[in-house]
Amino acid sequence: MQYFPFVVAAWILGIGLYGIVTSRHLVHLIMCLIVVQSSTYVLLLGVGYVTGAATSRRDRSARAWPAWPRCL
Fold it and tell me: What are the residue boundaries of the structural domains of the chain, listed by start?
C-alpha cells in the first residue's frame, strides 16, 4: 500500500497528458490541465502521509468546549 498513491498519481497524470495531446478545443485542454494538476495533489498527499502518525492536537478530549466561551 505504500506505492498506491504514486501509482494513482501516475495514472491520473497519464490520463491528463493523453487528453492534452489529443485535445482540439481550448476548454478541453484546460480541463485536462486541471486533471494533471489534481495528480500533483495526490502525489503530495502520498509523500506527506505517515502511517501511525499522531494528530496535530495533543488531546482532543481536554478541549470539549470551544475556545470562544473562555475568552468572554
Answer: 1-52
